């Protein structure tokens, strides 16, 4: 069975029966899982991995819905309400949060085409402030940073991000060198299932002293 | 200064300067806080309280955006993108989550006009399943249940909810008597600031053994 995506490329899709077995909910839909890193966006890869973690009872982490300001809604007879006018709002938080090993997890995912450094402009001020607030409450916060040209993915601790974020307003650089992200961050290797085993990197954080 | 709401009623509004003082972020907007329970919906009351907790650096708890399936977007020249067709989707999680005292907090808020019992149909199956998954990962989950006729508000633990939820499929009642909610839940008294001091009730849960 092959699914053809808009760009014409084809993906191998497999129904994951082992998930079914471990899942308590009899009424759950039969899930399709797309394996590997074959043109998926980082967001798709993370959603895919979160689905895996959810159905394996490993963690409950969801992407938040896109914030939308709804202005006009039609209520046609005998069919669903249709939103006729709405606008995108800026998110005041990060995109992902949830619970893992009893810990509050909060992160955002960023891709860059830049080969040697990560531009800090990828973050909104609100997102960084949100992470700062969460860290203060004992949450575990980080960024997943992907260098798309080389398919390299890193977990970068929020506390490290704060240092570089703040520095840019004190004469520091407006980007973080990839070498620094390599050194301070945790490299995440793509795998079959989950696509992005980022909770392994979270384990390293939780097991070390310098967490969050 | 008075704000007139669509229903014509007027609310006393006060600029809360003490929030300003305790807030580290110099760039934060000057917040207006509406005090007390004067016709606000439960959602407004909770958002209001969450704002208070956020700016006092007590907890970071947000309402998730309404999930919307976007079908058609227009990109007019020189102005913001307009969503022209979209549909409401069912939420697969609860509405509120965040972090408090290092704990993952997850809850939903429900109002009922019923005077003597709370109909379980107020919950979607997905929301209950989501809470079950969160509890399993060590999260603290509950419902805020408001009897609007009498302005009575209770924190009701998810683990208690599960009992009554599951019972309804085994010949049990489709609702929970208010007396039971009074007995098992924690009453929350409305206050000036925050409107709903529900984290006091959470403290009781966290300080007791039978948490979550």
UniProtKB/TrEMBL annotation, chains A, B:
Reaction it catalyzes: Endonucleolytic cleavage at a junction such as a reciprocal single-stranded crossover between two homologous DNA duplexes (Holliday junction)
List its EC numbers. 3.1.21.10
SUPFAM superfamilies per UniProt? Restriction endonuclease-like
The source's domain of life comes to Bacteria
Which keywords label this protein? Cytoplasm, DNA damage, DNA recombination, DNA repair, Endonuclease, Hydrolase, Magnesium, Metal-binding, Nuclease
Which residues are listed under the site Transition state stabilizer?
110
Task: Name the CDD domains on file.
Answer: RecU-like (cd22354)
Q: Where does Mg(2+) bind?
A: 93, 95, 108, 127
Q: Where is the composition biased (Basic residues)?
A: 18-29
Which coarse location class describes where this protein primarily resides? cytoplasm
**Which metal ions or organic cofactors does this protein require, according to UniProt?**
Mg(2+)
What's the stated role of this polypeptide?
Endonuclease that resolves Holliday junction intermediates in genetic recombination. Cleaves mobile four-strand junctions by introducing symmetrical nicks in paired strands. Promotes annealing of linear ssDNA with homologous dsDNA. Required for DNA repair, homologous recombination and chromosome segregation.
Q: What is this protein called?
A: Holliday junction resolvase RecU
Q: Which gene encodes it?
A: recU
